[in-house]
Design brief:
Layout: H1 3-12, H2 15-40, H3 44-61, E1 69-71, H4 73-86, H5 88-107, H6 119-135, H7 146-165, H8 171-186, H9 215-247, H10 253-268, E2 275-277, H11 279-287, H12 293-308, H13 311-314, H14 319-333, H15 337-344, H16 347-363, H17 366-387, E3 390-395, E4 401-410, H18 415-420, E5 430-440, H19 443-458, E6 462-466, H20 470-479, H21 487-492
Parallel strand pairs: 4-5, 5-6
Antiparallel strand pairs: 1-2, 3-4
Helix pairs in contact: 2-3, 2-4, 2-11, 2-12, 3-10, 3-12, 4-5, 4-9, 5-9, 5-10, 6-14, 6-16, 6-17, 7-8, 7-14, 8-14, 9-10, 9-11, 11-14, 16-17
Length: 494
Amino acid sequence: MTFIETFRRDWLSNVRGDILAGIVVALALIPEAIGFSIIAGVDPKVGLYASFLIAMIISVTGGRPAMISAATAATAVLMGSLVREHGLDYLLAATILAGVIQVAAGYARVGYIMRFVSRSVMTGFVNALAILIFMAQLPELIGVSWQTYVMIAGGLAIIYLFPRVTRVIPSPLVCIIVLSIITIVLQVDVRAVGDLGELPTTLPSLLIPNVPFTLETLWIILPYSIGVAAVGLLESLLTASIVDQMTDTGSDKNRESIGQGIANFITGFFGGMAGCAMIGQSVINVRSGGRGRLSTFTAGAFLLFLLVVLGDIVGLIPMPALVAIMIMVSIGTFSWSSLNDLRKHPRRSSLVMLATVITVVGTHNLALGVGVGVLLSGIFFAWKVAQIFRVTSVLTDDGRERDYVVEGQLFFASAEDFLKAMDFKEKLARVRIDVSKAHIWDLTGVNAVDMAVLKFRRAGMVVELVGMNEASATIMDELSVHDQPGAMERMLGH
């Protein structure tokens, strides 16, 4: 595909839908960015600057069209202690370094790690995010006036029912406009966006973080930068996979990693905090009709326009309108079919999904939750593979030789079963170990073969390994020791 064709597909194939969806996302980004700034312990403008800068940059550099990236809770929560102990400039320096790390990770093709994330982990990730999105709205639902509940209910009704009338205008945008008019005209007593914090009225300026350029500074910010880079990439790649499924299109995960790094690197020089992909806003964008890069760019550009030009008007937007949008996003994000699947799917798959959800919701740490899910998936997979491993044997008619036939995968989980299948006390002249139906995967598997060979030899038998495939022969040649001088003394102890 030529550059012109790619440009038309990504930028001009859905202009009206992308622009309208981007406007909705921009409005939804404002309270989120302010809230994440508070989490990080910085002025609201730091999160707002980051949100429009990252969105505009990633629309060009990213690998997943229609995905929204901005300041997020996942990265903000990691920066809080750095800001408290060292100040804002160290946060900006850490953001820049995190960008460099992400670019390096992209060139190292880190995107391929997504193949190790199982469907159960993905479902758990999505469900956990849906729960977290809803929980984030609780401060706007507890201890508020009755008018707030009425406004939220009205907003939910508009979002749900308006698409039955027309889909020309995204229903979340209609919700914001209608509830804003009602609040202003009737002077309804509800919280507004302006109550969350002061909105910036000027463009960000280019700056260099005021930190000493020393190794000591590097050691201070490096742990934070690595954490932000890792969590940011993980959330971005998982969100990209979700958008892939929602739109039935593919994405370039490695380009996305590089694009996230470039966006964070530049943002740090303009006074913004680190960010990554946002599942909630990405879902809003796609469900509002966004499909191309133009939707992401519009979200960032319109957010800038709102802050600099229409800041006073934006401050009047009632929070119930944005809460209603996020509640519908939460409902739409949650995989309700997964509840029914708990009874149908294998128990191990359901346990992985539930463990991911519980860990993420309990810790508010997306990376930890996904890590637990991937770890459990790996353990269950290894256990399942180990169960289809077996060793059979046949004794020759004269009773002097025995053939052991190994079938399956010989690795750390099956090595013990391999050794238990061998009778080292049987009086034989020769033992033949046939691995033509097996594959030796790791050092533990190699060690098990070494141990078997040496134990048979110690009993005075001749041992023959046959049928080894090329890959198994390669790892045996590199790691096995049973033919080396002194191997018996080292491994068997005498």
